[in-house]
Every structure is written in structure tokens, then in C-alpha cells.
Design brief:
The complex is a heterodimer of chains A (309) and B (279).
Chain A: H1 2-15, E1 19-23, H2 32-37, E2 42-44, H3 49-61, E3 65-71, H4 72-78, H5 80-90, E4 95-99, H6 117-122, E5 128-130, H7 135-145, E6 152-156, E7 176-180, E8 185-190, H8 194-206, E9 211-216, E10 218-220, H9 224-231, E11 236-240, H10 249-260, E12 265-269, H11 282-288, H12 293-303
Parallel strand pairs in A: 1-2, 1-3, 3-4, 4-6, 5-6, 8-9, 8-11, 11-12
Antiparallel strand pairs in A: 5-10, 7-9
Chain B: H1 13-32, H2 37-42, H3 44-54, E1 67-70, H4 76-85, H5 91-94, H6 125-139, E2 145-150, H7 157-168, E3 174-180, E4 183-184, E5 187-188, H8 189-192, H9 198-204, E6 208-213, H10 217-226, E7 235-240, H11 263-275
The chains are: A alpha/beta (309), B alpha/beta (279).
């Protein structure tokens, strides 16, 4: 998704002179297309994220559309107060680009695992929060939203070599996209981890359990109507995200369920372990948190009362 | 390209403007029964020179207007006073200071005409100012950006990120002004977190450094007039000031960072300001 972002932004910048890209000294082998095509609108500000947010605020107030790029942890948290008091408070079109949500930075460790970025972004009024499911959707989401008047937080995954089945790059702000339909179970998924949700649905299908998989790509605005409609049809819904259970996709679905008085039981598949307790690659960390296809499948079977998994 | 704004300088010049700003600070802080008086008095002369003489097209939404960011937002009352004297805020608006539903709080709010950015969290304003300065250069506009920071604000690490960036990018159109009154919320800056030698620090970071008496309107005007914002390094004007300047019982007293005025203190403060001449 990060290369799809860089490529799409480079193309958009050919037509739109307002686009500026800043990085806090990250983006090796990713941002070169933009920096070489638009050197006058590319700034490596150094390892200084808080300053980068302030710079972008000033640029946005002067008519530019600045994108500020870093690893999702640093992009979302180091300058968080500057984001709140800058583009959020002033309603300015700053685009905060956080790369590599969840465990995508694997062995780099907890300092590089964004497990609360979506929760932090979601509570800021007027901050649009977008987390695409694959690289084609990332490109579509960027092209569709970059001109919005207010600020945006994008969580882009690292992989550019995987496409979710039946998504075909669709993106609609504040809507869900249905990846497959079934009557027995609802899985609501988000971001790069959606590949595992799709795998879980296939494993469940092998056991005769037909699953609807709904992809959420924007947490703010929430896809309220779509989620309301979906959870009204199922007794059990699983939410799947590479994030702490609090504040992200699962919380959003629970808020909607509570808001409409739905009888649907919502189980949140998320990162439940304490940070820093172990090191490992992305796959290992997903397994440790039950966030592989097999792990999600097992949680689903348990929720459905099938105990021989 | 820009024409200087038609500044409404009080009769008697900038000294008189500063005196009027101080009077408004005392009157409105008393009316609202709030503090931060010392911090506002500390910058009254700087604000008088900027708004009475230096800033172009202030209070307009002209894209070529000079930008001013009061990064030490807790001194907003001085800014409101200047905007009132410039005709941007009415008498009625000024008198809503800190009232429920008012646009005039202890810290400035960008929805108010004449305020480009909301401030109040220290260490943020200079980065926004560097952004507007960078934007001016990219658009080939000749407006300038002035950011007024407190000396204690230089405790903030984020400020130095911007100091490095602005020097690296040679943002000659960015002017930082440091209200160097040597005081912060809980004590003297030299006792809390010593900043000195402050001028040498900014110089070492690649800025063009000017040090002046922050209460001498003639010196301030001359320093600002001397800045070549079209070329060279970013500029910093370190203004040697006294917290609470103009009111004898406040000057240099840490408590006046916070305290409101009693009736007796109010009358004494107003009387001293009426009689004083600062230049």
C-alpha cells in the first residue's frame, strides 16, 4: 500500500500543485518517485515529527495540501498534540500518513507496532480516518479523499503484492465493502489483516459455515448504516483488526450495536497481549494474538458453539 | 508588492500605544478577575511596535498579510488590546474577555478576526510559523511571519526542531521574537531550567540573532526595520524584558504569572501606568 500511495500521490501531484510531501526521514525505496518528480514539493524535515505537523499546519493554512509521512506509531503519536491543536482544531487539510499498522514492522519491536493509532485518531473531531485493505484500495482511497477540506489520518500497510478477493480496488468513504456473503456468521475486518479474515472465512466454509466478510476502510466517518444493516442480520459478529481491542474497529462496531440496541453479540479479535513481552516476526505475533486465519477461525467456532476445532 | 497597513498609532506614538495596551490589560483582567497579567505586560511594548508599526495588512484575510503567531498564548490580552487599538476588535468585543460564550479567552482562538492560529500549548507556534514562511517562499509571496515565544517556551524540545529546520531551509522571512523576561510559572528561568546563553544558542543553530531592550519602542522599531527578510538566515529578536513591566509591585515577581488584581492593586496599577514613561 505504501508504494501505491507514493505512486498515486506522485500522479495526483502532476495535476494538483497544492500537494506537498514531507517525511520525517523515512520512506527509503518508497518516496523516491515523488521526490524525483516533484523535488520542489518534497521535504525531508529530519527526525522531527512534531515539527513536521506544525509545518504542515502552516502550509495547509496557506493553501497547500501537505502529506506528512512516517511509520504509523511516530506519525500518529509523536506529534499527537500538534495534530489536535493544529489541523484538527483549525480544520485544515493536513494528511497524516502512518505506514505499517499493527505488527507489520514485526522484528522491529513494540516501538514500531501501531496498536492504538486508530483509537487516537478516531477520537479527534473532524479527523477522517482511513485504513485500506489492499494496495488497489489504498490508491483509490487516496484519489477519492485527498481533496477533502479537513484533516485525514491514513493507515497504509506495507504490502503492495496482495489483493483482497472481490474488492477490485473499490473504496467508498463511510461505507463497507462486502468481500463474500454467507448467512451463518459476520466478520467485519479492517486493514492489511483482512487477508487473514478472508482465510478464516474460507476455513469456516470448509466446515460448512457460510460467512459474510465486510471490509471497513474508514473508521471516521463510520459506516454506520452499513454496519447497522449487517449486524441486524446475524446473531454473532467477529471484528478483526491489528490493534488493541479498545478504540478501534471492534469498539466502533460495539458502539453502533449499542446505539441501535442490536441483539448481535460482538466478539473482538484484536491484539490482547501486553506490549513488549516478546519479539518476533509479523506472522509469529499474529499467531500469538489469534490473528491468523486459523486463529480467527477458532474464535469463530467457539463463538458459534462448535467445540471440535 | 505589499502596502503597509494604515496603522492607527495612538497620539504620542508607540510609547502611548504601549501605555494604552497596558491600561486595557489591567482593566480587562480586573473586569474578568483573571491572571497572566505579568506575561501580558511583559510584551506590551513589543506588541505595540509590531501592531502599531511593523505588521502589514493585519486583521485582514489578504493572503499577502504578514502572519503573527502569539506562541506564548497566555499573554493574549496584550494581543486583544492591540487588535482593539488597530480597529480590528470593538470596545464591546474587548469587554467580553473571559466571559462565557466570548471569543476572547485567556489564550487566543483562531476564529477571532486578526488571530491566524489558536495557541496556548507552548512550543507549537514556531513550527506553524515556519510552515507559513515556507508557504510564502514556495508561492513567491513576500509576506513575513512573526512568532512571539516566551523564554521558558525554549524549554520545549519541539521548538528546537523548528529552529533547526528553519535554519536548514534558510527561512529568511521567519522572525522569532523571544520575550526574555527570565521568569516562568514556578520560578526564575535560571533556577528552573537555565536557558543562557540564549543568544549564543540561537546563533549556534544558524539564526541571525538580535538582542534588544524589549521595552524601548525606538530600539524595537529600529531592529525590526533592519531585518532583511528577503535574504539570509531566519531572524530572532531576543527582547530583554521584565515580567509585569509598568506595575511596580508586579515587576519581577513570579506570583504575577497567575494572580488576579485586588481593588486596591488595580487602582495602583492603573495610576502607575498613567504616570509612567518607558522610553
Amino acid at each position: 500500500m505504501r508504494r501505491a500511495f507514493a505512486h498515486t500521490l506522485t500522479e495526483l501531484a502532476h495535476k494538483d500543485p497544492r500537494i506537498v510531501l514531507m517525511t520525517a526521514d523515512l520512506g527509503f525505496m518508497v518516496l523516491e518517485e515523488f521526490s524525483e518528480s516533484h523535488p520542489d514539493r518534497f521535504f525531508n524535515v529530519g527526525v522531527a515529527e512534531a515539527n513536521m505537523v506544525g509545518l504542515a499546519t502552516g502550509l495547509a493554512a496557506s493553501g497547500f495540501i501537505p502529506f506528512i509521512y512516517s511509520i504509523a506509531t511516530f506519525a500518529s503519536m509523536r506529534g499527537y498534540e500538534q495534530i489536535r491543536n493544529g489541523p484538527v482544531l483549525h480544520e485544515l487539510p493536513v494528511r497524516i500518513v502512518g505506514v505499517g499498522g499493527g505488527f507489520e514492522y514485526g522484528h522491529a519491536g513494540i516501538t514500531h507496532h501501531a496498536l492504538e493509532d486508530l483509537a487516537l485518531a478516531r477520537v479527534q473531531p473532524g479527523l477522517t480516518v482511513i485504513a485500506p485493505g489492499d494496495h488497489r484500495q489504498a490508491a483509490a482511497a487516496l484519489a477519492d479523499t485527498y481533496q477533502l477540506p479537513g484533516p485525514i489520518y491514513y493507515r497504509f500497510g506495507k504490502r503492495d503484492d496482495y489483493e483482497l478477493p472481490r474488492l477490485d480496488g473499490r473504496f467508498r468513504l463511510g461505507r463497507t465493502e462486502i468481500l463474500q456473503e454467507g448467512d451463518d456468521l459476520l466478520i467485519i475486518t479492517l486493514g492489511a489483516l483482512s487477508s487473514e479474515a478472508v482465510l478464516a472465512a474460507r476455513l469456516l466454509g470448509n466446515r460448512g459455515i457460510e460467512t459474510t466478510v465486510a471490509l471497513v476502510s474508514s473508521l471516521q466517518p463510520p459506516p454506520w448504516d452499513d454496519i447497522q444493516s449487517l449486524i441486524g442480520k446475524f446473531p454473532v459478529a467477529l471484528t478483526v483488526e491489528e490493534h488493541y481491542p479498545e478504540g478501534g474497529l471492534g469498539s466502533m462496531v460495539c458502539e453502533i450495536a449499542a446505539g441501535i440496541g442490536a441483539s448481535c453479540r460482538v466478539l473482538r479479535c484484536a491484539v490482547g497481549t501486553s506490549p513488549g513481552s516478546y519479539f518476533g516476526g509479523e506472522r509469529y505475533l499474529r499467531e500469538a494474538n489469534g490473528l491468523t486465519g486459523q486463529g480467527i477461525c477458532a474464535t469463530a467456532l467457539k463463538a458459534l458453539g462448535v467445540h471440535d476445532a | 508588492m505589499n502596502q503597509p497597513a494604515a496603522h492607527i498609532v495612538a497620539e504620542g506614538g508607540l510609547v502611548s500605544t504601549a501605555k494604552q495596551i497596558r491600561k486595557i490589560i489591567i482593566e480587562e483582567s480586573k473586569r474578568a478577575n483573571v491572571g497572566h497579567i505579568g506575561s501580558a505586560l511583559s510584551i506590551a511594548d513589543i506588541i505595540a511596535v509590531l501592531f502599531g508599526n511593523e505588521l502589514r495588512l493585519i486583521g485582514t484575510d489578504d493572503p499577502l498579510r504578514d502572519r503573527f503567531i502569539l506562541s506564548k498564548g497566555h499573554a493574549a490580552l496584550a494581543l486583544y488590546a492591540a487588535l482593539h487599538l488597530e480597529g480590528v476588535l470593538t470596545e464591546g468585543q474587548i469587554q467580553t474577555y473571559c466571559k462565557d460564550g466570548s471569543m476572547l479567552g485567556v489564550h487566543p482562538e483562531h476564529r477571532l478576526r486578526g488571530i491566524d492560529f489558536s495557541t496556548g500549548s507552548l512550543g507549537h507556534g514556531l513550527s506553524i510559523g515556519a510552515g507559513t514562511a515556507l508557504a510564502a517562499r514556495m508561492k513567491r509571496f513576500d509576506y513575513r511571519t512573526f512568532v512571539l515565544v516566551s523564554d521558558a517556551e525554549c524549554n520545549e524540545g519541539a521548538l528546537w526542531e523548528t529552529v533547526m529546520f528553519a535554519a536548514h531551509q534558510k527561512l529568511s522571512n521567519l522572525v522569532a521574537i523571544v520575550d526574555d523576561n527570565g521568569q516562568q510559572a514556578l520560578g526564575k528561568t535560571k533556577d528552573v531550567l537555565d536557558l543562557q546563553p540564549l543568544a549564543e544558542k540561537w546563533d549556534a543553530f544558524g539564526w541571525e540573532v538580535h538582542v534588544t531592550d524589549g521595552h524601548d519602542t525606538t530600539c524595537l522599531r529600529e531592529v525590526f526595520a533592519s531585518l532583511d527578510t528577503a535574504l539570509g538566515k531566519p531572524k530572532v529578536v531576543i527582547c530583554k524584558t521584565v515580567c509585569g513591566k509598568g506595575v511596580s509591585f508586579m515587576e519581577g515577581k513570579v506570583a504575577w504569572h497567575y494572580l488576579p488584581l485586588s481593588d486596591e492593586q488595580y487602582l495602583q496599577a492603573l495610576g502607575e501606568i498613567e504616570e509612567a514613561s518607558f522610553s
